[in-house]
Amino acid sequence: xxxxxxxxxxxxxxxxxxxxxxxxxxxxxxxxxxxxxxxxxxxxxxxxxxxxxxxxxxxxxxxxxxxxxxxxxxxxxxxxxxxxxxxxxxxxxxxxxxxxxxxxxxxxxxxxxxxxxxxxxxxxxxxxxxxxxxxxxxxxxxxxxxxxxxxxxxxxxxxxxxxxxxxxxxxxxxxxxxxxxxxxxxxxxxxxxxxxxxxxxxxxxxxxxxxxxxxxxxxxxxxxxxxxxxxxxxxxxxxxxxxxxxxxxxxxxxxxxxxxxxxxxx
Length: 266
Fold this sequence. Notes:
Structural class: alpha+beta
Oligomer: single chain
Number of helices: 6
CATH architecture of the largest domain: 3-Layer(bba) Sandwich
Radius of gyration: 21 Å
């Protein structure tokens, strides 16, 4: 089935596939707006406070955070008192939860950050694979695997680069380095050639990078998604989503259905 693949044994998943994430987001936005949702862009939840066991959200225009260095308190321009708050801020979810005055710090898990880079396959007119190819998982990730996009482009990644020294301000403002250094390719070639020995020198071009919001660090056992409600933290109408890394996008509809069924009250 895959003549370019070198392995002893493999498992075939016949229903695995890919999705156009941008089109998915546009579809979800349109469907939400058709059901009465309003999106407030260029707006940031900067914190909140607990009053009568409900969470009040502090809101500010995003442009007011551009020069913020954490040395002075942020003042809200608006305070909202919603029935349900879902903290799904990804990388910033734990540090945002820390800014909810009255939420016990003990319920906020420690966070770890891991950068993952992708490289694209160039200098080829024929795609070497017809399926997504996953090697044995590594510490902190799924290993440098083969991904095919909707245009037939072959991508390899992600690797795992643990990031240390991220302060709360940098995490809150998403000040991460998403650049892909060309020199990192030298680490990819030996990993890819473990299952694709015919990979030619000079055939990898820098692609893109992402950051995983992990709840487990190097050489620690993996931790599953944390969907944290009132039964854990004791605050009515607050749901925290921690550690929603890959496959968080694939699981997003299931996570949303779980939250709507378990936590939403009309």
